[in-house]
Amino acid sequence: DTAVSQTPKYLVTQMGNDKSIKCEQNLGHDTMYWYKQDSKKFLKIMFSYNNKELIINETVPNRFSPKSPDKAHLNLHINSLELGDSAVYFCASSQALSSYNSPLHFGNGTRLTVT
Amino acid sequence: GENVEQHPSTLSVQEGDSAVIKCTYSDSASNYFPWYKQELGKGPQLIIDIRSNVGEKKDQRIAVTLNKTAKHFSLHITETQPEDSAVYFCAASRGDYKLSFGAGTTVTVRA
User: Fold this and answer.
1) Strand order in the sheet with B4-7
2) Bridge partners of A21?
3) Using one digit for the tens of pLDDT, what is the confidence trace for B56-88?
């Protein structure tokens, strides 16, 4: 019944590795996002996809590559992991691109720890 | 771009008392102001929002006020309960896809 589900919940890996986080939403929404929450709880948007098309790509290193195989899925692949990538990554979805009429629905996050 | 400042960063209240969190925004074109609650180990969840055409909105023990002239908005929680303990985020946008979040307020309700 989970609306936005992401896996894994925890991810511990070493510097230099490549890892992926998967996200699925069953709300029928058109738009999906990846947010990064740092150790101070600050939430920052990374990417947004609308109908499988990339809409927002904030100043994120190109080691981060999102992929949306269909409207219900948005995965995040990270190459050559660095210590500074340690954070909680949240997937979210909304009915449409406009925040005015379509609030964000967040997953429960993936805590990534790079050692 | 939009800059949202949120105060205080931490707030401790006695159960039954009220809690108030304040946010200011910089972009006068912003017209949508949601509030999210994040419980431990979970993602943020929308609890209430307000649009620029109203000055106040209430939902049971939660109320938001908006002062467009001063560019600030506030969240008020009355009769606080232990389950209100969480991190609260304000946010602002022009109604498009770019939602700018405040830095969060950690609220602790003491029994």
Assistant:
1) B4-7, B19-25, B72-77, B62-67, B56-59
2) A76
3) 999 999 999 999 999 999 999 999 999 999 999
Q: What are phi and psi of A11, to 5 degrees?
A: -145, 115
**Closest CB to A98 among B36, B44, B95:** B95
Searching chain B, which residue's CA lies closest to the CA of residue A95? B97
Integer angstrom CA distances of residue B91 from A114, B22, B32: 29, 11, 8
Q: How far is B27 from chain A (nearest CA, A)?
A: 15
Average pLDDT, chain B: 95
Task: Give the closest residue to B21 by CA, choosing from B82, B86, B68.
Answer: B86
Q: What does the longest C-alpha to C-alpha distance in chain B come to? A: 41
User: pLDDT tens, A3-49?
Assistant: 999 999 999 999 999 999 999 999 999 999 999 999 999 999 999 99
CB count within 10 Å of CB A105 equals 21
Find, in chain A, the residue whose alpha carbon is nearest to that of B93: A99
The residues on B that touch A, with CB distances below 8 Å, are 31-32, 34, 36, 38, 41-46, 49, 51, 87, 89, 93, 95-99, 101, 103-104, 106
Calpha distance B81→B95 (Å, rounded): 32
